[in-house]
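Figure S7 source data.
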Amino acid sequence: SMDGRCLASLPKAELHLHLEGAMRAETLTELCRKHGVKRPMDTRGQRFADFSPFASCYIAVCECLREKADLERLVLEVAEDASASGALWIEPALSIDLYADQFGGVEATLHLLFQAAEAAEEATQVAMGFIVAAERHLPVARAEALAKKVRDVVTSGAGIHGRPGILGFGLHSDEANHPPEPFAEAFHLACSDLVVPLPHAGEFAPTGGGAKSVRFCVDHLKAVRIAHGVLAAEDQELVEHLAKLQVCLDVCPTSNELLGVMPVTESALTKLLAAGVPCTINSDDPLLFGSSLLGEFRRCRDELKMSDEQLAACADLIQVIEEKENIGVRQVL
Ligand code: ADE
Ligand code: ZN
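Tokens for the predicted adenine complex:
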């Protein structure tokens, strides 16, 4: 089976990584000190009681992003850490509504992030395209306003080294209390040939509801990829539907364990792969969970007993390229 070095050098894409949640722990300490704000608790490796303490922590992390230099440092370090895990391509998701006011609004913040991504790519050879996401705990009108700004920035042609800077429109935060249906119009406004729908779904949901939100996102939002989606495994008919349509699931095993979705040893990942559903392996929020892309591949090998072939399939950049909508990575590879 793949040894440490082999697993590290396996060329990877990381498709599910929250930019703010991928900040280095030391960087959070330093930014909090610089801005005179209280440092949120170090939660790495700890089990969260439910989504609410996680959400509070996430909001507090975003509050330490205040200056252009903070965003530049964050983007560069995220690219450096991706490179250390063997990633060539990453798609960081932005909880931009939580801090854009500090930078003159959403459009101005996106332009800063595109510049930071160009510099990071030159320094690390790791290329990226962003997913801009609405926070589902905020009013639906906020999501729709964000969607219009995404559409405007994308049609303006602004990007990263001539590629589109935004690849997807997402939906973050507490799925159990905020189902996707009211956000359909926001997805309709934001999505196009260049911007794919990438909602978080099938992560947590009211008892028995996890599969239902995945089905809604596939059938009504036309998602060809789902952030998490692991609760779809509870519904055999849906699993067959996902396999038939080749909907790709971004699976985050450590995140699922620490948010109480399912332990790594019982991850639905192997079941979904066996049923023919394409999946990728991802770290979600390294800052909050203590996860890393390479660490997730190791846990899948050691604890979930995945074969080399299964691991390579989950890392396979071809899978990403074949997602026909994904213009960014095709221009890079
Ligand atoms: N925001 C950051 N990480 C998240 C997750 N795993 N689920 C929903 N929203 C998030
Ligand atoms: Zn996530």
